[in-house]
Specification:
Blueprint lengths: L9 E4 L3 E6 L10 H6 L8 E6 L16 H15 L4 E6 L1 H12 L4 E7 L8 H17 L3 H5 L2 H5 L6 H11 L3 H13 L14 E6 L7 H10 L3 E6 L6 H4 L1 H16 L1
Parallel strand pairs: 2-3, 2-4, 4-5, 5-6, 6-7
Antiparallel strand pairs: 1-3
Helix pairs in contact: 2-3, 4-8
Amino acid sequence: MTDLPTELSVRESGTGTPLVLLHAFPLAASMWSAQLDALPGLTGDEARVLAPDQRGFGGTELGTDDPSLDLVADDLALLLDAAGIERAVIGGLSMGGYVALAFARRHPGRLAGLLLADTKATADTDAARANRERIAAAVLARDSVRLLAEERMEDALLGPGSGPLAERVRAMIAQAPPQAVAWAQRAMAARPDSSDVLPGVAVPAAVIVGEQDGITPPAEARLMADALPAAELTVIPGSGHLSALEAPEAFNAAVRRLLARVAG
């Protein structure tokens, strides 16, 4: 494990079952606003929702370590220590899902449940790794994330007919620091295949995917759900890669079912 580069910036609400939500690339914990508002329930005791900014994003500093999602998973273990939480439901969307899988591999005894949304357990292809390095090198050379806007990254992240949400996502992408974007791209490129982790996850699990997710499509979600011993698969109609933002009610309903299974 590594020392935290700085205290993780965390958004938190509720007092019930601990649920950690890990954001997508290149967004920040602000993407979970609908979950922070709704998942604790009307009385606030259904879930204790914690949404940290991962290294370099939002209010968390990047630090000086070499790129590695294992380090981000270890940051999360230290965050649980600081919060007095022994076991939690760990959930992530896209890059957050990669971190959740790294956490399951490195800290399996601290899992109360596992949520994998719009993500995959398989490693990048050679072409995907090359594209990540292209983006990392370009944003560092330009000291700007404008490349992501030029390539209309929000269109790849969202399903058809996203409307005003596209502008919101575009604004969140523009706030990402170039150094964090490059670091995260290289960390994701270096991540191992985590398919072998899934059969050993004995806790309740949920796999959620947008029906129109073109980045980590439903076929990848089904592979994970089939490999997990106790998983429920939810495919959200009409949603793209950012299902928690595009269809928060359907997304939250699936998370509540997971929380009920964990509590039971």
